[in-house]
Structures are given as structure tokens and as C-alpha cells.
Amino acid sequence: MIAWQGQMGVAKESSYGTAITTPTRYIACQTGNIETVVARVASEEARGTRWEYRDEKTGIDYTFTWEQWAVPGEIGEVLEYAFGDVSSQVLIGDENRHTFTPASSLPSFTMFVDKAVTATPTYRGAGAKINTLTLENSARDILRLTVEGSLQQHLWAAVISPGDSDYESMRPLQFKDLAVSKGYAGVSPTSDTTIERFAVTITNNIITDKVSANGTEYIAALPEGILQVTGAFDREFEDANDFNAYVADNQLDIIATWTGSSMGTNDYSLQLDVPNARITTNPLPQIAGTSERGIYTVEFKALYYSTDARVIAAILDNEEDY
């Protein structure tokens, strides 16, 4: 199937599983899909034959995934759904500054996947929640968001028209827009220009086994589990600071900021602030040949920071309202 007209949209629900009829945000995803898995129970009754007569459908489960570029006007809803809420929004010059910090519960949303094959091709999934959100930026690449999660049920909807997307008119955030600051043992973060890749993953540990005697074949809800924030960055071996911090179990503070194109007198930007992390893997490179650089990966895990009352924050500057 060549779905050159295919597109995807999302809309926040007022209550869990109450489907929205029209997307409020169209996302120009690179890839996206809803997977459907039917639960079945087979019969192996002792009835004097080797033929299998019964194989009962007993339920149905849905998962979804998509990948998108970090176009500043298109990532606010994703951050809201993954973090749980917009903790503040203020006007700064020509832009709105949105701060996202993890909430105790996540909003549900309706997801629209239109494969452009018939008059009513839109596969609409209600009761969707984001389980993992990964933001990753490699050298000379676009900042990419990969989203995975589960939803409650599907419905069909009429074709959705091409939506209002910032994809064509706004440049996505790129590696050259990235500035990283980090500090160890409570020292204020300072610029580190040696970073060659940066990634953060937010995992909500959605619980997908809540099935109640409510007369349907769908799951009853998607409760949130323990929030986990992990990440990694690559750099060339130039000093032993990362290794020393790993051995000493020092606090690691990281601020990653992407500053994009101008919107009037201000710039679009995204900042990820991790105020209290620990390195979780040995950050020393292997000995390599003389023709290779000693590149190593620092993996870290973020912990709740009581002073800021958060484990991570995302600050997004754009012209949208959420």
C-alpha cells in the first residue's frame, strides 16, 4: 500500500475513552501506526477426536507508535500527553513559554490514523496514553521524537482533511541548534561542547492488564505506573570527569537547549532540564586502533529532586496555546 495521502492527528479527551470526532492537532509523522492484537483461548477438550473445534476470541488490545521531527509548533501536545499537564504558560515577547513537569496522572487522547484508502479510512483509537517518549538527536540530524503507548478501543471515522500543520512552514530543531550544559556534585551546569549525541526517554510504565467485568472486550483503564527518566550522551574521551563522577555516585545536572528559527523578535526553543541524575554505566571507552576515536556513551537515570519538586522539566517556546 502506498499511502501518500496518509496522515495522523490527535485530540485530548475530556474523560478517559470518550472519543473525540476531529483532531485538534495534525502531526506530520515520519511513521505511525496502531497495532491490534486479538486475545484468544483455544479448547483442548477430551472428546474423542484430534480436531480443534473451538478457538474463542476473548478480548482485544491496542498499541500505537509514531516518530516525528521536532517541529516546534507540533510537539506541545506530545509533551503534555507524556508529562501529564502544562504546569505553566506565560507570554514572553512574541511567544508563549510552556513549562511541562510530570503530573500524578496522564491525560488520555484520541488518535487518528488516516491511511487514505476509502471514503472512511480513518482508524480512530480512543483512550490513548503515552507509555514512552524518547527525544534523541544525533550529530547532523533532526531532533526526533519517538512515541509508544496503548489505547482502549478503536472506532472508524470519516476521512480527515489535510490539517493545519507547521511542518512545511517551520524548520525542525536540529543538532546544530543544541547546547548542552552539565555539572557534577551540585556545581552549577556549564557548557559542554564535546557532546556528539543526546537522548532522553520518559517512561510512564502504563499498566495494561486492568480488565474489569464491565461487559466489554476492552481493557477498563490504563493506570500510570512509576515514572522513570533515563538518558544518554556520547562524547570523545578527553578527561576522566564522567568516570570519576560515576565511581563517586555524584549528582549530575543536565540542561539541553535547542534554539531554532526566529518568530518575530524571539526564537523557537525547547529545553530539557534534568536536575538530579546518576550515571548508571561505566563511562570509559575501549582501547581502539590508531585510526579510531575513543567515543563512549554516558547513560544516566534521573531521580526526583525535592528542591524543584520534579524529576525533569521541558520548557517549550512557540506561538501555540495548550
What does this protein look like?
The protein has helices at 76-83, 241-248, and strands at residues 7-12, 25-27, 29-42, 55-69, 88-92, 95-100, 109-114, 122-138, 144-151, 153-157, 178-184, 190-191, 195-203, 228-236, 252-263, 266-279, 295-302, 313-318. It is mainly beta. It has one domain (7-42, 55-318). The chain has an 18-stranded antiparallel sheet that branches. The mean pLDDT is 89.
Query: How far apart, in Å, are the first and last alpha carbons?
Result: 35 Å
Number of strands: 18
Order of helices and strands: EEEEHEEEEEEEEEEHEEEE
What is the SS-derived class? mainly beta
Give the mean pLDDT.
Answer: 89
How much beta, percentage-wise?
A: over 45%
- Shape call: globular
Radius of gyration: 23 Å
Q: Given the structure, what is the number of helices?
A: 2
How many domain regions? 1
The stretches of 5 or more residues where confidence is low (pLDDT under 50) are none
Helix percent reads under 10%
Key words describing this protein structure:
mainly beta, 322 residues, 18-stranded antiparallel sheet
Summarize the structure.
With 322 residues, the chain is mainly beta.
Question: How is this fold's topology laid out?
Answer:
Elements: E1 7-12, E2 25-27, E3 29-42, E4 55-69, H1 76-83, E5 88-92, E6 95-100, E7 109-114, E8 122-138, E9 144-151, E10 153-157, E11 178-184, E12 190-191, E13 195-203, E14 228-236, H2 241-248, E15 252-263, E16 266-279, E17 295-302, E18 313-318
Antiparallel strand pairs: 1-2, 1-7, 3-4, 4-9, 5-6, 6-18, 7-8, 8-9, 8-10, 8-13, 11-12, 11-15, 13-14, 14-17, 15-16, 16-17, 16-18
